Amino acid sequence: MSKSVHFPQYGGVNTEQQLVQDLVDEQIKLFGMDVFYIPRQLLVDKALNDIVLSRFKQYYMIEMMLINVEGFGGAGAVAMSKFGLALTDEMTLAVSKRRWQSFVSTKIQLKVPTRPNEGDLIYVPMTKNTYEIKFVEREVPFYQLGKNYIYSLSCELMQHANTEFDTGIDELDNLDQESYGFWITLAQGGTGSYIEGEQVSQTYTPNNVSAPVSITATVADWRPLERKVKLIYLNGVGDIQSGVALVGEDSGASWTPDTFSTLDIDVKNNKNNQNKYFEDAADNIIDFSEGNPFGEFGNMGDEF
User: Do the domain assignments include residue 236?
Assistant: First the structure.
């Protein structure tokens, strides 16, 4: 026997579904809190197809409701790992499906455009903590009156690793940045534009060495109006040299470094960063002009 034709096929009509959605939106607005949704931008190494840096440059404030009202879930700070204590605070947030689709998804391009994405961040001003979305449940409650009304976000305390915040909001940009990188000011006369994520290389022959050496790095940021490029993951035998062209493998851009320092690295919020201080202090103590009988020459750790 088939289902009765006198009742809706999936348990509800449009007016009833709109009423439930209105009640859900009202409850979240009354008992929820304003949070920042921060989408993730991935910087991918085009050679190895590996993610080298996560960048967060946008934010959207939207109301969400904390479902686990008794506090954060997870094992807290008692979970032991091979690196010691692990903070595993978890929380579950509910966001209105209609509010999301009308307010956020129309303003941003996401990999999955119709819902929050796993890997994006939620910043909670109340606790001043950042949480990473681990899973988005789209069917809870399960088709009440034939429709779903919320997205349930399972979030976990973010672990910072190779991240960069540049949203323009101090409250967000003061979050930890652990990406190692340094800026290079380029000389005039270069050609082309670097592509973020591509590898750049520089080949030259050092003094007293017959064979040329090649240095490679990854472009993390490119500012053509300022003639500045930010490099991360510097690899090679030698160091970046001024006066030698820095060539992009994909873009073909060619610019010559003018001034830079590999010691004064760009880690904005690391107050304990003293690379430059110790190097300058060591230069005043040790005479690097003396020859080394074991084969080294010059100040191998100095800046250029």
Answer: yes
Say how many residues make up the chain. 304
Dist. CA 173–CA 196, nearest whole Å: 20
Whether residue 7 lies inside any domain: the answer is no
The token duo for 120 is 């994006």
What's the domain range around 217?
182-283
Q: Per residue in 197-242, pLDDT tens?
A: 788 988 888 776 677 888 888 888 899 999 999 887 777 666 788 8
**pLDDT one-digit tens code per residue, 147-175:** 889 999 999 888 777 677 777 777 677 65
> How many domains does the chain contain in total?
2
Asked if pLDDT for residue 289 goes beyond 80, the answer is no
Say what the pLDDT of residue 304 is: 41
d(CA 238, CA 301): 11
Shared-domain flag, residues 142 and 35: yes
Residue 224 lies in a domain: yes
**Measured in whole angstroms, how far is the alpha carbon of residue 75 from the centre of its chain?**
26
Name 139's Cβ contacts closer than 8 Å, sequence gap at least 6: 148
- Indicate whether 152 and 33 sit together in one domain: yes
**pLDDT value at position 290?**
66
- Does residue 102 or residue 165 have the better pLDDT? 102
Do 125 and 66 lie in one domain? The reply is: yes
297 lies in some domain = no
Backbone angles phi, psi at 126, to 5 degrees: -60, -45
